[in-house]
Specification:
It contains 14 helices and five strands. By secondary structure, the protein is α+β, with helices and mostly antiparallel strands. The chain has three domains: 198 residues, no CATH class; 82 residues; 119 residues, Histidine kinase-like ATPase, C-terminal domain (Heat Shock Protein 90, 2-Layer Sandwich). Helix 2 crosses helix 9 and helix 13 packs antiparallel against helix 14.
Length: 411
């Protein structure tokens, strides 16, 4: 018990001189100055919220929420400098374009950030408003016997120097209490940050997994392209050279058996080259190197059914997304030729509010289903889900059949 008391007494007496106290005070004071604009943002947001039914209130509230959502890094800078706190950025909004407005209005992260803009500044203001005067008055009171004689007659006037020592004890109490007030207010602010700004453990884990999956997906795409390039430039070139050599041997050989063996070997090499080209196209279609539009037009030109192609996207999609779109179109056009009995088809790719939408339409007999045998639609749906997309099939009996794939624009 004695050791506990001594430790507690030592903590109380040394608290005014610790770095923790001064860092906390610096955090509160700087937070008042730096947080003033965000406090006004919070006031603007909450004032405009009741006016959401008015046309003018809706864009103001949406703008306030969008700005508040970005203040996480702004608040993190002084917290990291003074106290060593850190937390992850909020996940970006998935919606883009005109869909961003309802998304930001329904975003809990933005609303929590707006609440912190208002409540966090008030908390830091109250902490600094109390802690700074306590520090100043405490220092003045403790040193009062030193400068007592220079004070003109007034409320602090005392008839004797010995009477000034009562202010010393009062000042000492203020200085001893001030660090604990600072720690209380800083601790309360930490709780607010954890509840309002920091992503939850589940959301942080989801963001980490999504980031890791994106890295793995990009690495896999790069690996496939490297393998395709090595097969195309290395193995395929050697097989071509071997085929040419066998062709020369076949022409120059005089022995019928040797000529026959060379011809068989050349035929085997030709088949191997054809199989290798199919494998290369399955890894990464070389046509995609010239862009998605060129690749899809190439597929359309090979189709047994006349196909119209329209590609309306303003940016080049990622490798994983482009490959998924290419193989989906290849599979669907094969289905049209084999099963639909169609006379024409249309392939359309367009960007749509953060998504890339592929639509393949044919005028065939219809009746296609995701669980149908031999169509490969279930595999296409799994491919779309793996990229956080979706596949929708509308194929009533008698047609037409419309297959729509949606993939994230940044996939």
């Amino acid at each position: 018990m004695t050791d506990w008391f001594r430790a507690g007494l030592r903590a109380v007496l040394t608290a005014p001189f610790t770095a923790r106290t001064w860092r906390g005070l610096g955090y509160l004071v700087s937070g008042v100055a730096l947080g003033a604009p965000t406090f006004l943002l919070g006031v603007l947001g909450f004032v405009s919220a009741p006016l959401i039914i008015v046309t003018a209130g809706l864009p103001v509230l949406a703008a306030a929420l969008a700005l508040a959502r970005q203040t996480s890094a702004y608040f993190r800078a002084p917290a990291r400098f003074f106290l060593g706190w850190d937390w992850a950025r909020p996940a970006p909004l998935p919606a883009r374009g005109w869909r961003r407005l309802p998304a930001i209005l329904a975003d809990g992260t933005a609303w929590r950030a707006l609440v912190y803009c208002f409540a966090g500044w008030l908390l830091r203001f109250l902490g600094a408003y109390a802690a700074v005067p306590m520090l100043v008055l405490g220092v003045l009171a403790v040193t009062f016997p030193v400068w007592w004689s220079f004070v003109p007659a007034g409320p602090f006037d005392t008839p004797h120097w010995s009477d000034t020592w009562r202010f010393v004890w009062q000042g000492a109490l203020l200085l001893l209490a001030q660090p604990w007030l600072v720690r209380l207010m800083v601790g309360a602010d930490r709780l607010l940050i954890r509840g309002l700004l920091e992503p939850s453990r589940d959301s942080a884990r989801i963001a980490e997994l999504e980031s890791s999956r994106a890295v793995l997906r990009d690495d896999a795409a790069a690996t496939l392209r490297r393998v395709e390039r090595d097969l195309h430039d290395g193995t395929q070139a050697r097989l071509v050279a071997l085929g040419v050599t066998l062709s020369r041997i076949e022409r120059r050989a005089t022995d019928p058996d040797v000529k026959s063996l060379a011809g068989d070997a050349r035929g085997t090499v030709t088949e191997a080259l054809a199989e290798l080209r199919d494998i290369v196209r399955g890894l990464h279609p070389p046509a995609l190197d010239d862009g998605l539009g060129v690749a899809l037009s190439t597929l359309a030109a090979r189709s047994a059914v006349p196909v119209e192609v329209s590609v309306l996207i303003d940016v080049r999609p990622g490798d994983a997304t482009a490959s998924a779109l290419y193989f989906t179109v290849a599979e669907l056009l094969t289905n049209v030729a084999r099963h639909a009995g169609a006379s024409r088809a249309r392939v359309e790719v367009r960007a749509d509010a953060g998504w890339i939408r592929l639509t393949v339409t044919d005028d065939g007999r219809g009746g296609a289903r995701l669980d149908g045998l031999g169509t490969g639609l279930a595999g296409l749906e799994r491919r779309a889900r793996a990229l956080d997309g979706s596949l929708l099939v509308r194929s009533p009996p008698g047609g037409p059949t419309v297959v729509t794939m949606k993939l994230p624009r940044e996939g």
